[in-house]
Each structure stands twice: as C-alpha cells, then as structure tokens.
C-alpha cells in the first residue's frame, strides 16, 4: 500500500511546517502589488517534494541525523527558486491555473508576473549568499542558468517532430532535474561530506528529477485539469513534444499531420490525446521514468545500505505512482 505524503515526510513534518511559515516571512517587498504577486505563489501550496528530499538527505548524511539551520535555509531557498521558475513558465506557457488556483499573470498581468519571478530569484540569491558557503553558492546559482538553457532548448523545438528522446531528457534535466540534483549535493556539502558522497546524491537527485518530469508529462496527457491543477494537454497546445508524444509518433504517423498543423483547436488536441492513449507510448514513458527511479534507488541500496533511507525510497515510489 502506497504511503501518504505525511507518512513519507514523518521525520521532517515539523521542519516542513516551519518551512511554509518561514517562506511567507522571507518574501519581503515594499510595493504592495509585487508583494501580493509573490505571496500568491506561496498560497498555491505544493507537496514540498524538493525541500523534503533536501532535509532527508541532510539527516542521512549526518551521523547524529541532525539538520542544521543552513540546511533548513537551503530547503527554503530551493522552494523559492522552484516557485520563481513556475511563474515564468506559466507566462511562457500561457497557463491560466496552477495547483488549482489562478496564475499570477492571470490575476495581474505578464509584466507583473515576470517581475515577481525575477524578484523571487533575487531574494533566493540574497539568502543563498548569506549561507556563506562558496561551494553551495556555485552549485545552486548554476541552476538558474540551467532554467534559461532549458527554456531556450524547449522553445527552439516547439512543434519539431525531429526531437529525440535524448534531446527531451537533456531539456528535462535543465528545466527540472538540475535543481533537485544541485540542491541534493548542496545539502551534503553543508554536512562536510566527501566528494564521492556529494556526487552520489547529485546523481540521485538528477534521476529523481528526470523521473518527476517524465511523470508530469504523462499526467499532462492522461489526467483531467482537476487532477493536475492546471489545464490538461497544455504541452500539446504549446508545441512542447514530450515523451508520450515522441513515443506515439513511432506507432502513429498520423500524429505528424496534427503537429504540423500546430493542433489548431481543442478538437485536434483531444484527437491527439486519444491517439496517444491508443499506443504503447504511455507505458513506454512510465518505463523510462522507472529506469531513472531505479538508477536513483540503486545508489541508496548499493552505497548506503546501513542508513535509514526508507523515506527517500518511498518518495521515489510515490513519484512513479502519481501516474497510476
């Protein structure tokens, strides 16, 4: 039986509750519109998967399973960076809802939304610098560059039927996995872990991040808007060819015509979704996500068998089961 989020986060539930309170205090803006826009981002509460991973790794890699203040702050910084990237994504994707509520640009406008995202990136950079750890700063600051790289890679491939699974995975790393990988490594740096341990958890975070993105892309095809808290089929509408569509193209050449027409109208999007569902593309995409979860959990089983990694393992399996 799949554990609930609260059960998986049991050792760090108090930490996550405090994290949510701290995030509100950390976002300080003098202009009321900018503050309202930034605050709106945190009203749409997510599951806090990223900070949970950071805090659990912090416990695993410390002999006394203690979490230091710098690691708590790192978890908060990571959530701010992630949230900033979402508001920019929503503008680019013209997404009207996120986690079931209106997006910032829908409530205000695109300019305010972009400024709110920039403001959050700036706030996260300030808090990051105040950790006073140059190696952590180098690791996390690279993520913001990766976000831009991912968006550009995605943008130049809109409605491009030549995109390969390898290119899709590379883009997914920049857009999603880079943050989880780098923050997983950063929390081990704060524990003064050796280079091998730092690299182990970077690779762990990378594969968990890739699996998370693949499952997200599956849900965009198979779930309703109510289930995922944002419009379904949004990737198709925006010409973002993800794993399910790339795999479906191998079986159903008629999809090429719909893509070349840029899915004009909801009927074409619905038709494409129906075609994808009638192929092995969803299962192939799930298999791809499972491969990455297996690569991540292999590190925990192989290198840290004596550590209490069950909660990290449960998060890995939870990510996979989101699409079941």
Automatic annotation (TrEMBL):
GO BP terms in the entry: isoprenoid biosynthetic process; quinone biosynthetic process
A Pfam family per the record: polyprenyl_synt
Cofactor(s), by name: Mg(2+)
Domain of life: Eukaryota
Keyword field: Chloroplast, Isoprene biosynthesis, Magnesium, Metal-binding, Plastid, Transferase
GO molecular function: metal ion binding; prenyltransferase activity
Keyword Transmembrane set for record: no
Family classification: Belongs to the FPP/GGPP synthase family.
PANTHER family registered for this protein in UniProt: ALL TRANS-POLYPRENYL-DIPHOSPHATE SYNTHASE PDSS1 (PTHR12001:SF69), GERANYLGERANYL PYROPHOSPHATE SYNTHASE (PTHR12001)
Protein name per the record: Prenyl transferase
Species of the source: Cliftonaea pectinata
Gene name of this polypeptide: preA
